[in-house]
Write a structure and sequence with these properties.
Layout lengths: L1 E5 L9 E8 L8 E6 L5 E5 L15 E4 L5 E6 L4 E7 L4 H5 L10 E3 H4 L4 H7 L3 H18 L6 H9 L7 H9 L3 H11 L4 H19 L5 H7 L5 H12 L3 H7 E2 L7 E2 L2
Antiparallel strand pairs: 1-2, 2-7, 3-6, 4-5, 4-7, 5-8, 9-10
């Protein structure tokens, strides 16, 4: 498996975190399993060749839009693959596509069901990666220009400034924005796709997962306390909820060339 990450044009960085090209090393001689881990980033995926298969044997469309992942899922593939991925910023869906983010949470849609387009045909006709990225970038720029919904600055502030190492982080954000708890809930649902407390949990989990990825730790108990979990059992419950496995098994079996989308080694 090969993965290449490409930065977007400067004007699109408030909306796009990065582009990624995920390719197999030739054809697969066996079924490969990939886990989808809870994270805070929606995305757009173009599958040039073999389509991945979901947990209920549904085939993912050649070009699909997905929302934030709030639990854990998995995909399988049985042949060579080449996926071009657009990783959006956490609160970008509303300001690009004009839809409430919660409509896409833990779901995916054929892009044509969200906005009429001929993007698949354009991408299949063009083989060069840089040109494909230009095609997608131009398409997204046009959507942003036409969209009446602009970036929610309160949501952007909350995403950028949430303190995940303090259980009081959400209350502090609410105070700094001078909004009610109900308004905070509504803002997160519309612009991010999940309640603020769940978003806090996912961000805290991701920080702990980064700690595990670094392999610079002596025990899972210390990781739990460093990331404001009540104890190791609390940390492991959250970890299993968001990955489907334990921290120990993740360290042993996850081949994570793409963050939050590891190939699972048996």
């Amino acid at each position: 498996m090969k993965y290449t990450q490409i930065q977007p044009a400067t004007k699109l960085r408030p909306y796009i975190r990065h582009f990624g090209l995920l390719e197999s090393n030739g054809r697969c001689d066996q079924i490969k399993t990939f886990k989808i881990i809870a994270d805070a980033n929606p995305g757009l995926v173009f599958q040039e060749t073999t389509c991945f298969i979901g947990i209920n044997n549904e085939k993912f469309p050649p070009l699909y839009l997905h929302g934030l992942t709030s639990s854990n899922l998995q995909k399988t593939v049985s042949d060579g693959y080449c996926n071009l991925i657009v990783c959006f910023q956490t609160n970008a869906l509303k300001s690009i596509f004009g839809i409430d983010a919660n409509e896409l949470t833990d779901r995916y849609f054929h892009l044509d069901d969200v906005v009429k387009n001929n993007l698949t045909a354009q991408l299949l006709e063009e083989r060069r990666l840089n040109k494909r990225i230009t095609i997608i970038s131009d398409f997204i720029s046009q959507l942003i220009t036409k969209n009446k919904h602009r970036e929610n600055l309160y949501a952007s502030y909350a995403v950028a400034n949430l303190n995940i190492n303090n259980d009081d982080g959400l209350h502090r954000i609410q105070t700094e924005l001078n909004i009610t708890e109900r308004s905070l809930q509504r803002m997160f649902k519309t612009n991010i796709g999940i309640p603020p407390k769940l978003y806090f949990r996912i961000c805290r989990f991701q920080a702990a997962l980064d700690h595990i990825r670094s392999r610079k730790f002596t025990s899972y108990t210390k990781i739990a306390y460093q990331h404001s979990y009540a104890d190791q059992a609390h940390f492991i419950r959250d970890f299993k909820s968001f990955t489907g496995t334990t921290p120990k098994l993740f360290s042993q079996q996850a081949n994570e060339q793409v963050l939050n989308f590891p190939e699972w080694l048996s």
